[in-house]
Amino acid sequence: SLSTCNQIGLQRFSIKRQQWNRAEAMARRGLLLTQNPQQQRTFWQIVLLSAQQQNNARGLQEAQQKLAQLR
After folding, report:
1. What are the residue ranges of helices labelled H in the chain?
2. What is the rounded distance in angstroms from the CA atom of residue 61 to the CA atom of residue 65?
3. 31: left (phi over 0), alpha (psi -120 to 50) or beta
4. To which H or E segment does residue 4 belong?
5. 3-state DSSP: the chain helix, strand, coil percent, rounded to 5?
6. Distances in Å between the alpha carbon of 20 and those of 40, 47, 51, 66?
7. Closest to 31 in 3D by CA, of 66, 61, 65, 58
8. What pLDDT does residue 53 have?
9. Residue 56: what pLDDT?
10. 6-38, pLDDT tens digit by residue?
């Protein structure tokens, strides 16, 4: 099992390589593992970016709603 910090690092690497599906899947796994609101915001920001890059309106809306709840 990867630590949250390692997952964030891998997600950023994945995003740089434009592996949006993988980055989003890893962020969603991270969301299952953390109760920390700051980490949750980071993961939802990755989901948001992935949705934007993939023109995924449903994922974009979900991420925006979750980020608004975490403010």
Report:
1. 4-16, 20-33, 37-53, 57-69
2. 6
3. alpha
4. helix 4-16
5. 80, 0, 20
6. 18, 9, 8, 19
7. 66
8. 87
9. 92
10. 777 767 766 655 688 889 999 999 999 999 999
**Which tokens in the block code for residue 55?**
């023109």
**Residue type present at position 12:** R
Q: Which residue type, as a one-letter code, is found at position 55?
A: N
End-to-end CA distance of the chain: 29
| Neighbour count for residue 8 (Cβ, 10 Å) | 18
Q: Other C-beta atoms within 10 Å of 19: how many?
A: 15
| Averaged confidence pLDDT in the chain | 87
Residue type, 47: V
Two tokens, residue 38: 């700051």
